[in-house]
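stage 2 :: seqdesign
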């Protein structure tokens, strides 16, 4: 096929350069006979760029067939329909390796659709000691105590701070395990005077304004609060926990220490884009962001003429006060699992072992394009900044979105206008926060009840009158299958 020649060229290049150590070192245990595996992934080209080329070089006897899920995204279906179509595609194509996200990994594991890999790890004495322990624990938690997959990378957030601003204004620098209350209190210690485009801000979102609603959402996610109890289909907004979150957010917004410009970046050059971000420009004391901010800062230094660098620091957090050494702000988009009853378990396991192993980590430690490496000890720093802080807290499951696929998608279009109206009244001092939250709770509950009823009626009509259409949809599920033969 057209990619065959490209693969040979890529393999020769990699073997002569980046993977010299991997090509000449002693081979790991391999599947001896020629075999093939099907891997389900969202994009065929990116799969080989990120995983397939490196694996094929190490295991030329294992052919790779990719089942792409791109067609499912292009269909424009809602989340519930996507998950249904995803499952149908798995049943139709029977892939050996599944690439899952946080949500469907847990679902597939609980439904018995994944191969337990603890026994394979034990059989091959596969080293998991240097894999981020907290991540393994989280994967086991989602597998009800058993390990059903591994994730080569993850995403997490930390508290970034401008150490020069803290020194200039005599404010104690952030520490690991800070709560949102401590962050807001610290933000208020910075001056609030000056023009919007030149003044200093105590805290803010790097890429836009921090409204009352999205600041409250950020705080609530750290504390694991659910907006809706998906089991009872009842909103939980008018509770003490949510009131405390919104009160903390409101106090922060009203202190004028939070970055919330009247208008954000609307277009222009890359230099103008970077200049619109106050943390990058040294005018924001703190922000909570992922590791991507480090890459963004490096690019800004190279893009902005006469850029003035500053000393930055990072602290682990923010944390829920009830869980001071843990974090919910960690997630993984790519968990690789073996489908239960796969006829190619050994070959599939070789693939999962490799992309979670040390050789793979050595190569990928040079970039941060796919998040932070789960295999520790390889990505130690980026642009002079230590990455140890991302591994300090123990991740715990974020249940704030658990079972949210049960919520009708129509509900959210009705919910947000209610929130915007009521919080606008709070901002204008026309209504108290407690009154606004009660109104949001009452009106949104009516909207949710109606959306649930409408969804049930649609489903009933579909089950009774459109059974044939459902089977037709399965047959027509979009699958791009690409075979690479060496």
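stage 2 :: out
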């Amino acid at each position: 096929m057209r990619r065959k020649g490209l693969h040979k060229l890529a393999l020769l290049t990699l073997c002569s350069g980046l993977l010299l150590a991997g090509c000449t070192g002693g081979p790991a245990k391999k599947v001896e006979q020629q075999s093939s595996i099907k891997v389900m992934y969202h994009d065929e080209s990116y799969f080989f760029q990120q995983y397939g080329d490196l694996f094929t070089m190490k295991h030329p006897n294992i052919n790779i067939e990719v089942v792409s899920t791109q067609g499912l995204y292009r269909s424009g279906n809602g989340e519930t329909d996507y998950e249904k179509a995803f499952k149908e595609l798995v049943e139709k194509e029977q892939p050996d390796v599944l690439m899952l996200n946080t949500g469907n990994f847990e679902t597939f594991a609980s439904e018995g659709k994944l191969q337990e890999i603890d026994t394979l790890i034990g059989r091959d004495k596969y080293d998991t000691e240097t894999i981020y322990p907290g991540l393994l624990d989280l994967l086991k938690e989602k597998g009800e105590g058993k390990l059903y997959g591994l994730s080569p990378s993850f995403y997490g957030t930390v508290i970034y701070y401008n150490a020069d601003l803290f020194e200039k204004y005599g404010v104690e620098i952030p520490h690991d395990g800070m709560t949102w209350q401590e962050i807001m209190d610290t933000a208020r210690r910075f001056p609030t005077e000056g023009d919007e485009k030149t003044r200093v801000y105590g805290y803010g979102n790097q890429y836009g304004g921090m409204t009352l609603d999205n600041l409250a959402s950020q705080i609530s996610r750290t504390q694991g609060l659910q907006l809706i109890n998906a089991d009872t289909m009842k909103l939980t907004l008018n509770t003490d926990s949510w009131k405390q979150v919104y009160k903390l957010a409101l106090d922060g917004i009203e202190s004028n220490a939070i970055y919330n410009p009247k208008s954000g970046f609307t277009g222009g050059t890359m230099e103008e884009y970077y200049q619109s971000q106050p943390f990058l420009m040294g005018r924001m004391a703190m922000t909570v962001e992922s590791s991507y901010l480090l890459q963004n800062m490096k690019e800004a230094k190279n893009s902005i003429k006469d850029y003035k660098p500053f000393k930055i620091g990072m602290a682990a957090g923010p944390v829920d006060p009830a869980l001071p050494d843990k974090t919910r702000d960690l997630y993984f988009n790519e968990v690789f699992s073996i489908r239960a009853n796969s006829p190619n378990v050994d070959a599939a396991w070789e693939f999962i072992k490799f992309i979670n192993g040390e050789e793979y980590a050595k190569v990928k430690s040079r970039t941060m394009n796919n998040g932070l490496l789960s295999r520790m000890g390889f990505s130690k720093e980026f642009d002079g900044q230590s990455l140890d802080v991302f591994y300090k807290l123990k991740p715990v499951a974020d249940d704030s979105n658990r079972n949210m696929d049960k919520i009708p998608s129509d509900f959210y279009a009705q919910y947000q206008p209610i929130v915007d109206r009521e919080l606008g009244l709070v901002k204008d001092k026309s209504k108290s926060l407690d009154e606004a939250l009660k109104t949001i709770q009452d009106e949104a509950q009516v909207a949710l009840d109606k959306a649930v009823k409408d969804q049930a009626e649609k489903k009933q009509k579909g089950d009774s009158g459109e059974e044939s259409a459902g089977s037709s949809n399965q047959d027509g599920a979009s699958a791009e299958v690409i075979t690479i033969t060496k």
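stage 3 :: structure notes
- The longest strand covers residues 153-162.
- The two ends are 10 Å apart (CA to CA).
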